[in-house]
Every structure is written in structure tokens, then in C-alpha cells.
Amino acid sequence: MALSEMNSNSFRMINNLGKQYTELNPFFVFIAEYMIFFLVLAVLMFLFSRSNKNRIMVICAFIALVISEILAKIAGKFHSNYQPFAELPNVNKLVEKAVNNSFPSDHTIIFFSFCITFWLFKRGWGFLWGILAVLVGISRIWVGVHYPADVLVGAIISIVSAMIVYKIVLKLSLTKKFLRNQGVGEQSILSALSKQKKGQSKDY
């Protein structure tokens, strides 16, 4: 079986689920279209938090995104395809999308670049970010705007980019100094607050 046929068959398998389980369509439309606003809010919260580690995490995610987009543009030069709804009949198209080269998926690249970076930094429950990225990738197929190959290649590019950036940035002496200063700064603030409280208690 040719790769293009496997790609189309895999797309049909996922996209047709929207015809069988119509009650799930609103959920996947929300994930595919509006979860990007949740990601932006999360990025802003991390960026403006008092944690330098969170700021470095966001910076790493942006770097990973830029690298991923560059690699995606290169990949798009070697292979291109339109959205499934523009190439295949009877697609369960649930959202509006302009017809252009959909390989690889930009939406997937954005989410995997950020979510995998967050996972690498947060560990523990950070795996939920990875689940969110996977859900977004599946949702883009479910709503009919991307093939599985579009999503898979976008995910692979982003995961590799995020891991490389994470490994390199954390080893930089500038990053280590930045994190050390954070610890010193937090200790100074806590010490100052403690002294202030003690001073207030003496006044009483």
C-alpha cells in the first residue's frame, strides 16, 4: 500500500468518527479552533510570573517554535498537499479553513513546540501538556483540515526541536547564572518580608 493511500485511509478512519459520534464534534471543534487561546493565556501567565525558570521555559518554547517553523518550511518544499476537504470527497469538514499547503500542520507545530517544552521543564504532571498537544493534533484531523501525515511530521519536527533547545539552553552558563540569581533574589525577598513582619509584631 502506498504511503499516500495509507495517509488517506488513516484520515478517513479518524475523520469518519465525527459522522458516527456527532456528540463529540463540539469538543473537537473547540480543541481544534479555540484551545490556542488557552495556550496564549498559559504562556502569558508563565512569562509574567515571578519565576525566572518559567520565563526561560517560555523563551525555550519560542526558540523551539522558530526552529520548527524553519524546518517545516524546508519540509514543505520537498512535499506539499492541500487540506483533505480540498482533495477528497465527503470529508466531514467542521471548521472553515483556507485552501493552501497543509504539510506540515502549523497548528500542531505551535502546540507541540510549547507543550513539549513545558513538559520537559515541569516533569511530573507536565505530561498533561503532552496530552493536550496530542489532542490538538487529533482534532485537526477530526475536523477535516489536516491529514495524519501533516500532524505527525509537524509533531516530530517540534518534539526534536524542543528537546534540542531544552538540552542546549539549560547548559549555557548564562542560563545557570540567571537561575542562581533567581534563588538569591527570592531568598532576599523572603528575608525582607520576615524582618518586616517581626518589626510589625514588636510595634504591637
From TrEMBL:
Domain Phosphatidic acid phosphatase type 2/haloperoxidase: 61-166
Any one cellular-component term (Gene Ontology): plasma membrane
Region forming the signal peptide: none
Membrane topology, from the record: Multi-pass membrane protein
Compartment(s) where it occurs, according to its Swiss-Prot or TrEMBL record: Cell membrane
InterPro entries membership: PAP2/HPO, PAP2/HPO_sf, UPP_Pase
GO MF annotation, one: undecaprenyl-diphosphatase activity
Transmembrane segments: 27-49, 56-75, 103-121, 126-145, 151-170
This protein's UniProt keywords: Cell membrane, Hydrolase, Membrane, Transmembrane, Transmembrane helix
Highest taxon of the lineage: Bacteria
Protein name per the record: Bacitracin transport permease
Gene (name only): bcrC_2
